[in-house]
Amino acid sequence: MLTAVIIVVIFVAILLVIGVRSVRIVPQAEQDVVERFGRYHRTLKSGFNIVVPFVDNIRERIDMRDQVVSFPPQAAITQDNLSVNVDTVVYYRVTNVYDATYKVANFITAVEQLSSATLRNVIGGMDLEQTLTSRDQINRELRSVLDEATAEWGIKVSRVELKAIDPSESIQEAMEKQMRADRDKRAQILQAEGEKQSAILRAEGEKSSAVLRARGSAEAETVRAKADAEAMTLRARGEADAIAMVFKALHSGKVSQELLAYQYLQKLPEIARGDANKVWIVPSEMGKALEGIGGFFEAVRDGGAPDGRGADPGERPEAPGDDPEPVVDLEGRGYGRPPVLDD
């Protein structure tokens, strides 16, 4: 009886083990490769799956999502024989589980080695400056080569990125010196251009100022000339009017030669008052005028009329207001006969 119980327990345990081994739960976005008697049998999709225990073997579980692999720095030589260390990151995704399992032993190692070799080839065709400034081009060439090579392995390389491109320390120091020299050169060029523009603007400003100043001076001279011309015109017009008035007064007053000579004698002290007046110009008619004046005063002294006619001894000289024809001087002022001079 005990033996039968033991046999039943063993049988139930075997059934439980077989049941457990027969059920295979595959997570989402993952697939299992099933081998039967050492050969590929089928691929288990995500979800609930039944396998034959002790017959079917799960070779490998592969993640079908996009994977990111960061490779260690790879040394490369540029076209100008300079060494650089390049860090790369590869984004890939398994598209065929069978090819990724049976056509390559380790696809991650294969992608790493292929990426390193392709990177050396690409950087070897560029100089250092192109390597540092052409990351997009390097990424495209790497992705194209890796995608074409890994297509047989059931892998799709979606993207390749360069994390860093590090030259050696000596090269970095030389680059820093070169960049510093370039910055100093650009600063000097910018300063020289600024000074040049400042000088040009200053010269243009001075030119405009000089032009405006000259134009203002010309306009001022024109206005001043017009004002002087108008003043001279008015002055000449006034002098012409004064001469006309004097001429009219002379003709209306019937001025005699004696009176003109007398007025000239009155003006002689004013003419001789100046320090620079060394020479006097005496008109030729001055002698006749002086003779007339002498005769005039002799006639007055003798008590006769200025015209030579004698006056009565008891007759009083006529007052200036009694002369019907007064004598007029050069300025048009009327006078009577000259006063009688006593001996």
From TrEMBL:
Entry GO terms, CC: plasma membrane; side of membrane
Membrane topology: Single-pass membrane protein
Basic and acidic residues composition bias: residue spans: 309-319
Example GO BP: proteolysis
Subcellular location: Membrane
Keywords carried by this UniProt record: Hydrolase, Membrane, Protease, Transmembrane, Transmembrane helix
Keyword field contains Protease: yes
Band domain mapped to chain residues: 21-179
Pfam families: Band_7 (PF01145)
Protein family membership: Belongs to the band 7/mec-2 family.
Protein name: Regulator of protease activity HflC (Stomatin/prohibitin superfamily)
Native source species: Spinactinospora alkalitolerans
